[in-house]
Specification:
Elements: H1 5-15, E1 18-22, E2 33-35, H2 50-71, H3 77-90, H4 111-117, H5 121-125, H6 137-151
Antiparallel strand pairs: 1-2
Amino acid sequence: MTYSENCTELTKRFEGCRLTAYPDPGTGGAPFTIGWGHTFGVKQGMVCTQEQADRWLEEGLENAAGIVDRWVRLVNQNQFDALTDFVYNVGPGLPKFRDGFVWLKSGAHSTMLRHLINGELHLAGEEFPKWNLPPLPGIIARRKAEMDLFFRSTI
């Protein structure tokens, strides 16, 4: 499955686009972000073009969609888009280092992913608010928008 324009619009709405690197709102420092939420290799003071920002967004969403597609089956387009935006924002995680959609620091899968694997879509959708970290207004609003999209009918 691939992400739709709904996913791109959701990501753009919450990331916004800035062509000069800025500090993470939660930490006031690293990771620095540029474009539509791009963080890989970004340093303070870095500048990019709109074309580069758009290319990074597309690459990031394709990567996030690939992670969702690899781990999740039997979801509709809205659920796939919500999960893709979620992974774009929180990442897949890394055992021993960082919690994410696939892996927690403990080495276990996230509860959201376990529910999805077990076909417990309603329980999986209820996990979005648990990821309001840091609990900033923009993150809280984003998790709500992802959850709303996840539960929106495609009919």
